[in-house]
Design brief:
Shape of chain B: globular
CATH superfamily of chain A: ABC transporter involved in vitamin B12 uptake, BtuC
Shape of chain A: globular
CATH architecture of chain A: Orthogonal Bundle
Number of domains of chain A: 1
Structural class of chain B: alpha/beta
Distance between the termini of chain B: 41 Å
Distance between the termini of chain A: 59 Å
Oligomer: heterodimer
Radius of gyration of chain B: 19 Å
Largest sheet of chain B: 6 strands, mixed
Number of strands of chain B: 11
Structural class of chain A: mainly alpha
Order of helices and strands of chain A: HHHHHHHHHHHHH
Largest sheet of chain A: none
Number of helices of chain A: 13
Strand content of chain A: under 5%
Strand order of the largest sheet of chain B: 5-6-7-3-8-9
CATH class of chain A: Mainly Alpha
Chain lengths: 287, 275
């Protein structure tokens, strides 16, 4: 009944098909990369990358360049800088926040200088999933495949370096190089995700699904599957709702991914408390 | 003048390992100096640690104990002098050396399971993804068993007690057939019972495997029964001495720059106490 003809009609529109394809690809990469972002405690850095990208995107339009080239160049540049700083980025909230504010200010300047940007601004800030072209879908596919291939190659050493950098280093894992490489992947994922949810709502695809997954399991491979599942579910249901109710899909995506997080957060304590109780009863057998 | 060891080579309490392995020293420093960020951390380090010895690294904060571990691991290159570890110059990623680093809070909040953390110590350097090989799983189970951590192998590291976490970290260092085990403040922030358990565990590993063991510590008391010698960082010059030489009120007071007393208990054990 849910999938009545009214719901399926959604795929008759090319822009909806494009939105579904691009949204799904972005959700998959954001789920995987986001899992490591949460694990490495880089949530704020990821958020900042998106904001830094805002200056790149508006600057590019102002200079008559491609918006996404500007976005990708700025996020990647900032990502490499953060990666080289490595460990020092953790706990540097103030420094990151300062750069973030500066770039948002720059973005605002470009907005006021350029006449073409008025319409673009909202779509950069909040995403415009329904305006994605077939060419953008293809570009997103290339990025997604590239990201997945790199992640599959570096998965185990990256996990080791994220969880236990000191031991990873003694085992000969190139911890710093992986750190920089991961920040580049994060920057590219952010610049892709901006198309879907925009600069300001990047958390809802990159962090919230991964954080929900971290609440549910301590096993990385299962956690990644959950993170991807939550991200894809948020995008799909967001698009389906936007098809019925004329609100922007990114608003629904944000709302759904938050609802999933809240639901798990509220339900999970009963599970963990039960497990802690059984662990305690094990200890009590020791006199 | 190739053996500047001032007389401690006749220390009969040294545990000797079987076979010819004992012929080459586990770790040997010859007039080594270490500079970091323009500051001389220590210099004129000349000592030799035999295979199978258990040595405590003693010195105040910032005296360069952890730096020395990193030199032995090959992660830092000394500014001057000659270092050999198991007869070769130090190389990063040497699997004959196991490290139990000093843990920061970050890892204690980790939600990853103990078994997965140990497994990463075995195959974490391998590129790619996918399931662990059966041999790696056996290696993991052996290491967890050796430290008595099988019972909580499925628990997230962050939910374990300090003593249990330390067992898991030691298991991670023991996944390979290590010949040198480096422990950086293994008793830090552990309660007394866990301290005793971890010392007993280190002692058992040291004796049963004949592993050369280096323990960075601030407190010699819990370790005094298992260590053979002390490498102490006095006035920027690391040197090796027997317990009788080092556990001495004057030297310890100079080392830490504060009054320290050495007491002898009724059982004849030494006990160090801050004034």
């Amino acid at each position: 009944m849910f999938f009545s003809a009214g719901w399926l009609g959604i795929f008759e529109y090319a822009f909806m098909r494009n939105a579904f394809m691009a949204g799904t690809l972005v959700a998959v990469t954001a789920g995987i990369v986001g899992y490591f972002v949460v694990l490495r405690r880089l949530a704020f850095a990821g958020h900042a990358l998106a904001h830094i990208g805002f200056a790149g995107a508006t600057g590019a339009v102002f200079l008559n360049l491609n918006l996404f080239v500007g976005l990708a160049v700025f996020t990647t540049g900032a990502g490499i800088a953060m990666g080289i700083l490595g460990d020092k980025v953790r706990g540097r909230d103030v420094a990151i926040g300062t750069v973030l504010a500066l770039t948002m200010g720059l973005g605002n300047l470009f907005l006021s200088l350029s006449t073409k940007l008025a319409g673009e601004a909202t779509s950069i800030l909040f995403g415009d999933l329904l305006a994605i072209s077939w060419a953008q879908v293809q570009l997103t596919l290339v990025f997604a495949i590239g990201t997945l291939l790199v992640m599959a190659t570096i998965y185990r050493p990256l996990l080791f370096a994220s969880v236990d950098p000191e031991m990873a280093e003694t085992r000969g894992v190139p911890v710093r190089l992986l750190g920089v490489l991961f920040m580049v992947l994060l920057a590219l994922t952010v610049s892709q995700a901006v198309q879907v949810v925009g600069v300001l709502l990047i958390f809802s695809l990159l962090i919230t699904p991964a954080a929900t997954a971290h609440l549910l399991t301590s096993r990385p491979e299962i956690g990644i599957v959950y993170a991807v599942g939550f991200a894809v579910a948020s995008v799909w249901s967001g698009l389906l709702l936007a098809y019925q109710i004329p609100w922007p899909p990114s608003a629904f995506i944000t709302l759904i991914s938050f609802t999933l997080y809240l639901g798990v957060r509220l339900l999970i304590p009963s599970f963990t408390m039960a497990r802690q109780r059984s662990a305690q009863s094990n200890l009590q057998t020791v006199p | 003048m190739q053996q500047p060891n001032d007389g401690e080579s006749d220390d009969s309490s040294v545990v000797s390992t079987p076979q010819s392995r004992a012929a080459i020293p586990a770790i040997s420093f010859d007039n080594v100096a270490m500079q970091r960020r323009g500051r001389l951390v220590w210099s004129m380090a000349t000592f030799s640690i035999k295979q199978g010895e258990c040595v405590a690294l003693l010195g105040p904060n910032g005296s360069g104990k952890t730096t020395m571990l990193r030199v032995i691991l090959g992660q830092l290159t000394p500014t001057a002098g000659q270092v050999t570890v198991l007869g070769a110059s130090p190389q990063p990623g040497n699997r004959a050396i196991g490290l139990v680093p000093q843990r920061r809070e970050l890892i204690s909040e980790l939600s990853i399971r103990s078994r997965d953390l140990v497994l990463l110590g075995i195959n974490g350097y391998r590129w790619g993804f996918g399931r662990a090989r059966p041999a790696e799983l056996r290696q993991m189970a052996r290491a967890l068993q050796a430290v008595g951590a099988l019972d909580f192998a499925d628990e997230p590291v962050g939910s374990l007690s300090g003593g249990q976490q330390q067992r898991v970290f030691i298991a991670q260092a023991l996944v390979d057939d290590v010949q040198v085990l480096l422990l950086d403040e293994p008793l830090a922030s552990l309660d007394l019972k866990s301290q005793h358990e971890i010392v007993a565990l280190i002692s058992a590993i040291h004796r049963s495997r004949g592993v050369t063991t280096l323990i960075v510590t601030h407190d010699l008391n819990p370790m005094i029964s298992i260590i053979d010698r002390v490498l102490y960082f006095l006035d920027g010059h690391p040197r090796c001495g027997s317990i009788a030489e080092v556990v001495n009120a004057d030297l310890l007071s100079r080392l830490y720059g504060t009054a320290i007393h050495v007491l002898r208990t009724v059982d004849g054990d030494l006990f160090i106490r801050g004034a």
